C-alpha cells in the first residue's frame, strides 16, 4: 500500500498535488468560488469568524486568519480547542464558529463545536471525513477531500485545509464585496497553479536528503517566518518534533530579538522561510541577525541567500501563496529526512495516536 515509498507520510507528501486538484474540483469558476454544500445565508449577519482546532488543524486555522482579514475584511479570531473549552469564552451571535479537523473526531474540538451550537452560534466544520461526529453536529460542512491520511504526522490534510480556507476567503470576499471580480479571478488562476507547485521535484528531494545530514544533533530548531509564513513555521516545527523527537519551535521572525536570539550559537538551527513576495527584506534582516550570532541557517527561498549555511531553492513563482505551498513541501520533506536519518519509525511516532478522541 505504500506504493514503493518508505513511509505513508512520504507517500502522502507526494500525493498532495493530486488531492489538491480534487479539493479544487468543481469549486472554481472564472471569477467566483462555489461551494455546493454551502448556503450563503450562513454568512448573513456575521461580523466575526472564530476558528477553533488542535495541532496541525490549528496551524491551518491560523493561516486562514491572515486570509480572512486580508481578503474578506472580516474580523477573525483563533482558539486552541482545549483552551476554549475551559476558559468561559464570550460568544456572540454575530460570530460564525468554524471548527477544523482532519478526522472530525478530536474530542476537544468536537466539544467546542457543541458549546458554540448550544450558545446559539452558527457553525461550520472544515473536515476530511464525511459523516464524522463534527460533520454531523455542525450546521454546515466543507470537505477537504484529502483522502485517507495514515501518517500520524499530518501533511496532505493540512495542505487541503489551507486550500479550502483560501477559497472560502474569496467566497466571503465576494459576498462582502471586499475584492473586485478581477481580483477574485486573479486569485482563482493562482489557485489553479497550486497542484503543479506542490509536485515533489526529485532533484529537490535529493538535495533535502543531503542537507538533512547537518541537522541531526543541535540543541534546538527555530522555524521562523512572518505573516502567513508564521503558521507555516509553527507547522514545520510541529512536524519535526513529532517524528524526530528534536526540540523545535515555530516563531514569528520579528520576535526573535525579544528573547530567543539569546540561544543563538552554531548548535542552534534556524530554518528560515524567506518568501520573495511577502515582507522579504524584513524577514531577511531577522535571519541576518541570527547569522551574525552564529546560528546555523537553512534558508528556503527563491532568492539566493548568501548568509545561509544551506540554501533550499524553491521554484520561481509570482505569488506569495504559491511560495507558501512550495515551502510547505520543503519543511515536510526536511522533517521526514531528518527523522529517517535518525532511524525513527516515521509513521508510528512514539507517544502519539492519529486521532485524539480523549480530552
Ligand atoms: O483530526 P484533527 O485534525 O482534529 O487532529 C488534530 C491534531 O491531533 C493533529 O493535527 C495532530 O497535531 C497531528 N498529529 C499533527 O501532525
From TrEMBL:
Its main location: cytoplasm. It comes from Sulfurimonas denitrificans (strain ATCC 33889 / DSM 1251) (Thiomicrospira denitrificans (strain ATCC 33889 / DSM 1251)). This is Glutamine--fructose-6-phosphate aminotransferase [isomerizing]. Residues 38-178, 211-349 form the SIS domain. GO terms for biological process: carbohydrate metabolic process; fructose 6-phosphate metabolic process; protein N-linked glycosylation; UDP-N-acetylglucosamine metabolic process. It is an enzyme of class 2 (transferase). Catalyzes the first step in hexosamine metabolism, converting fructose-6P into glucosamine-6P using glutamine as a nitrogen source. It is found in: Cytoplasm. Its EC number is 2.6.1.16. It catalyses: D-fructose 6-phosphate + L-glutamine = D-glucosamine 6-phosphate + L-glutamate. The active site is at residue 354. Homodimer. GO terms for molecular function: carbohydrate derivative binding; glutamine-fructose-6-phosphate transaminase (isomerizing) activity.
Amino acid at each position: 500500500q505504500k506504493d514503493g515509498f518508505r513511509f505513508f507520510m512520504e507517500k502522502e507528501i507526494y500525493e498532495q498535488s493530486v488531492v489538491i486538484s480534487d479539493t479544487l474540483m468543481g469549486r472554481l469558476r472564472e471569477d467566483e468560488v462555489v461551494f455546493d454544500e454551502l448556503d450563503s445565508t450562513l454568512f448573513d449577519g456575521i461580523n466575526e469568524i472564530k476558528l477553533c482546532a488542535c495541532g496541525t488543524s490549528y496551524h491551518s486555522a491560523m493561516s486562514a486568519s491572515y486570509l480572512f482579514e486580508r481578503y474578506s475584511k472580516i474580523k477573525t479570531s483563533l482558539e486552541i480547542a482545549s483552551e476554549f473549552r475551559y476558559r468561559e469564552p464570550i460568544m456572540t451571535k454575530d460570530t460564525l464558529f468554524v471548527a477544523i479537523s482532519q478526522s472530525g473526531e478530536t474530542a476537544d474540538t468536537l466539544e467546542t463545536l457543541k458549546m458554540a451550537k448550544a450558545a446559539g452560534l452558527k457553525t461550520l466544520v472544515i473536515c476530511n471525513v464525511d459523516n464524522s461526529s463534527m460533520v454531523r453536529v455542525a450546521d454546515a460542512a466543507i470537505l477537504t477531500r484529502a483522502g485517507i491520511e495514515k501518517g500520524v504526522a499530518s501533511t496532505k490534510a493540512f495542505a487541503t485545509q489551507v486550500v479550502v480556507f483560501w477559497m472560502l476567503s474569496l467566497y466571503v470576499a465576494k459576498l462582502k464585496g471586499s475584492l473586485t471580480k478581477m481580483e477574485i479571478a486573479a486569485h482563482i488562476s493562482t489557485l489553479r497553479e497550486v497542484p503543479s507547485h506542490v509536485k515533489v521535484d526529485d532533484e529537490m528531494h535529493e538535495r533535502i536528503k543531503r542537507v538533512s545530514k547537518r541537522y541531526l544533533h543541535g540543541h534546538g530548531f527555530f522555524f521562523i517566518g512572518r505573516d502567513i509564513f508564521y503558521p507555516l513555521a509553527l507547522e514545520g516545527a510541529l512536524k519535526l518534533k513529532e517524528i524526530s523527537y528534536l526540540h523545535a519551535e515555530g516563531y514569528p521572525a520579528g520576535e526573535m530579538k525579544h528573547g530567543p536570539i539569546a540561544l543563538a550559537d552554531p548548535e542552534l538551527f534556524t530554518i528560515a522561510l524567506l518568501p520573495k513576495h511577502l515582507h522579504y527584506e524584513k524577514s531577511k534582516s531577522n535571519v541576518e541577525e541570527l547569522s551574525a550570532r552564529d546560528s546555523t541557517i537553512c534558508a528556503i527561498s527563491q532568492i539566493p541567500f548568501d548568509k545561509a549555511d544551506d540554501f533550499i531553492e524553491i521554484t520561481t513563482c509570482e505569488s506569495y501563496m504559491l511560495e507558501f505551498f512550495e515551502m510547505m513541501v520543503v519543511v515536510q520533506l526536511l522533517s521526514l529526512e531528518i527523522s529517517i536519518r535518525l532511524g525513527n519509525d516515521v509513521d508510528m511516532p512514539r507517544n502519539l495516536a492519529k486521532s485524539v478522541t480523549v480530552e
